Amino acid sequence: MNAEIISIGTELLMGELVDTNSSFLASELAKIGVEVRWVTKVGDDPKLLREVIERAWKRSDITLTSGGLGPTSDDLTRESIAAAFGEEMAVQDDLLEHLKGLFVNRGFPMPETNIKQATLIPSAQTVPNDHGTAPGWWAEKDGHVIVAMPGPPREILPMWTSTIGPKIKARNPDVAIVTRNLKTFGISEGGLDEMLSPLFQSKNPYLGIYSKQDGIHLRAIATAPTDAEAWELIRPMETEIRRVIGEDVVWGTDDDTPESLAASLLQAKGFTLGIMESFTGGLLASNLADVEGSRHFLKGSAVVYRDDLLEGHGVDPKLIEEYGPINAHVAEDMARAARKLFDADVGLAITGLVADPTDASGPVGTSHIGFAIGDSVSSTSGHYPTSRLRLRSRASTHALLGLVRFLNGLPPQSLSMRR
Amino acid sequence: MNAEIISIGTELLMGELVDTNSSFLASELAKIGVEVRWVTKVGDDPKLLREVIERAWKRSDITLTSGGLGPTSDDLTRESIAAAFGEEMAVQDDLLEHLKGLFVNRGFPMPETNIKQATLIPSAQTVPNDHGTAPGWWAEKDGHVIVAMPGPPREILPMWTSTIGPKIKARNPDVAIVTRNLKTFGISEGGLDEMLSPLFQSKNPYLGIYSKQDGIHLRAIATAPTDAEAWELIRPMETEIRRVIGEDVVWGTDDDTPESLAASLLQAKGFTLGIMESFTGGLLASNLADVEGSRHFLKGSAVVYRDDLLEGHGVDPKLIEEYGPINAHVAEDMARAARKLFDADVGLAITGLVADPTDASGPVGTSHIGFAIGDSVSSTSGHYPTSRLRLRSRASTHALLGLVRFLNGLPPQSLSMRR
After folding, report:
1. Quick one: closest CA in A to B390, which residue?
2. Which of A69, A312, B72, B74 is the most buried (most CB within 10 A)?
3. What's the half-sphere exposure (Cβ side, CA atoms, 13 Å) at B125?
4. What is the DSSP letter of A375?
5. Of B229, B253, B277, which residue constitutes the final position of a domain?
């Protein structure tokens, strides 16, 4: 079964909006074994829109559109499907009642223009929209389906999950797709590509490699008649990857994030955490604060952006004098001081230089990360030659993955990322 | 002049990669007055790719492709253009020498497969690529142009800026496009839409409204034969917008960000800043740290995530006892304490509750922001009913815009954003 995605709206063609709906739909379709062959963005031009929709309907088993279901004269998706099918739109009494009810709840009468959101053509049925006024359309003619969905992600996502996804899956029951994502840190994309080159030749499972904020991801996708058979294909590949690149390099799988791993481990051990950070400027604390339940383990972070203020936060001035502020000894002492300052079980600290051309006190992109628990301290260093904004993010990932290793009693990895 | 964009690569159809190139190219083309009429994503299938390229070449003045210029057998853009034009690819000696030189610099011999990156067809010339091995193609036949560019953003962006953009602009010299972006905070998207509804009818300048992390943006785009004439169209609209919604609501224009405004003002006044934050968990400091030169004014932030640690950071425990930790008096005292802790001229503080279902000590999404300079303190409050991750970002924006107003001697805005 193949599919085609059409994103509708002139704002997409102006580059004012990045079209995330089509990526979302494409990855969802891949999961249920539907091959996406075309993705098109088209503006609110009636002639072009009708042409694109008609071509899609004829050449694709399933066409998914997003956008153009609003009440204005620029919203032309329904009209274009009706024209392609050669059918007339008619107002449906029950839809109209429902729509008027939505406006009553909002406390004002329905504008006349919204009436077209209550129409159907004979070949279409509506798809409920719990998050907006525009219902979707499921239109089917000559064995080919067009599904029209609204544009806002907060409307299209639940509509896909509750109705459209299961309905399409039911038409394609004999294909199971399983995805396994291995997340790595410490070897560059080029290095992994070389080490795993035989595996990249495989078609099923298919192996992809992606450079992300938190390292390089290796994603295997297998297709089979059942989930169990798809997993049978994936497992040997995962074993082989782990053997070749080393267990140490794989820090997580699937939905794991550096924050979620560090948070789970701290909570499992019943530890609280105090942070002292200069390099990451608050990002390390902010990333952890975004994890649900973070209040239970995160006590705080001292973002100390001036070396002369480290002493006031409990760092030994003699160490700074002897080694300078960007140094493993200082990072370890900062971790110890963070524990004390926030009365926490574990201390985590990071010091280093970001790409600030006005600062000449050391190599840019180098950080030292310190860990402290009880009387035990440890540290690691990293060098991340990338842009200013990504530097902090790389360093935060490095610190959190280092913390996980430290708490598990493993030696931290020192990193010099090539990209 | 119209254009079409084709993004090439099976990974795009799997939803594994969000296609940012097409949005970038679309917004760049809009700036030079070229209308984008279609955007298509297509996989590495030779038949489909050729069909898509041939249709684009015939129907569009300019077709821009990204991706498919690599050395592997899946990289088929050159082959598809050659097939559409009915021409043969031939290796160019000078290109081959250059390519071999790139590999010499990298320290290993050129793999045989890369040879196709040194080919041309008679109707094409190369476009230099300073950031990769694949040169672009500028192919022109029957008055229609196809420009083939590499997929990686770090290659396509400089190639656009240095060569392709100016070359296309030169073919379309009599159109000037001017964009003016007014950034607002404090009125919901629906409210602005209603207040400005007559202006939204205008075609030139065209007015768009966009909900962003830092508030609602109003963007006017005017087209005219010259820049000066386009500005003549924009100015009265800007004046009218400011009159209708109020100068207070417009906090910035074009490339302004809350961080950049706060940073410029602090630097202009020669002030240093200390922060104390709970609600934003380090995000406020992190956002400011991302501004170049932040080391000159940002002294640090105390991210205090537990109320019982506020006292240790210099906040008066009697205030917390009397009012609770989430309160305007506490926010003001935190700002005063932040000034002192970091020995800074200005103190900024934020306290509040994020959407943590495990915490029941007050209304979720409410924050209090404190400002301190010398003996003067001030505060404001905000309520942002949105998702956990966006809450912090809204609050950081509110705090930074509040700081700008405070430093300018204006009363802070209390906010209750509807969305």
Report:
1. A290
2. A69
3. 7
4. T
5. B253
Residues in B touching A40 (Cβ below 8 Å): 38-41
Nearest CA in chain B to A152: B211
| Tokens standing for residue A73 | 């004269």
Co-location of A249 and A263 in the same domain: no
State the SS3 of A310-354: CHHHCCCHHHHHHHCCCCHHHHHHHHHHHHHHCCCCEEEEEEECC
Q: Would you state the structure tokens that stand for residue A282, as one six-digit string?
A: 């608050």
Q: In this predicted model, what pLDDT tens digit does every residue of B163-176 receive, in sequence order?
A: 999 999 998 888 88
CA distance A146 to chain B (A): 18
What is the pLDDT at residue B380? 92
pTM score over 0.90: no
pLDDT for position B239: 97
Instruction: Examine the domain organization and report whether A125 and A208 are in the same domain.
Output: no
Contacts of A290 in chain B (CB under 8 A): 281, 388-389, 392
Based on the fold, state whether residues B147 and B230 are members of the same structural domain: no
Q: Which of B206, B225, B253 is the last residue of a domain?
A: B253
What is the C-alpha to C-alpha distance for residues A313 and A304, in angstroms, rounded to an integer?
Answer: 8
Low-confidence ranges of chain B (pLDDT < 70): 354-363, 385-389, 415-419
Instruction: State what percent of residues in chain A have pLDDT above 90.
Output: 62
Q: Do residue A38 and residue B52 have CB atoms under 8 angstroms apart?
A: yes
Query: Are A215 and A347 found together in one domain?
Result: no
d(CA B145, CA B148) in angstroms, rounded, equals: 10
Total residues found in chain A within this entry: 419
Would an 8 Å CB–CB cutoff place B383 in contact with chain A?
Answer: no
B41 interfacial to chain A (CB closer than 8 Å):
yes
The Cα-based distances of B317 to A274, A306, B373 in angstroms read 21, 28, 21
* CB proximity A194 to B under 8 Å: no
pLDDT of residue B418: 37
My answer on whether A135 and A183 are in the same domain is no
Number of A to B CB contacts under 8 A, please give it.
Answer: 235
Q: What is the pLDDT of residue B361?
A: 52
pLDDT reported for residue B70: 87
The closest alpha carbon to A249, from A282, A277, A218, A276, belongs to: A218
Chain B nearest-CA residue for A221: B14
**Distance between CA atoms of A40 and A56, rounded to whole angstroms?**
10
For an interface test with B, which of A49, A298, A306, A367 has the most B Cβ atoms less than 10 Å from its Cβ? A306
Give Dmax over CA atoms of chain B in angstroms.
Answer: 83
Extended beta strands in B213-310, E state? 215-224, 250-253, 273-277, 298-304
List of chain A residues with pLDDT < 70: 354-363, 385-389, 415-419
Q: Rounded distance, CA A276 to CA A352, Å? A: 12
β-pairing verdict for A273-277 and A298-304: parallel
Nearest residue on chain B to A6, alpha-carbon basis = B40
Q: Which of A49, A209, A286 to mutate to test the interface with B (most CBs of B within 10 A)?
A: A286
Residue B289 to residue A303, Cβ atoms within 8 A = yes
- The pLDDT tens digits of the residues spanning A34-50 come to 989 999 999 888 999 99
Please check whether residues B194 and B98 belong to one and the same domain.
Answer: no
CATH number, position B157: 3.40.980.10
* Chain A, nearest residue to B212 by Cα: A17
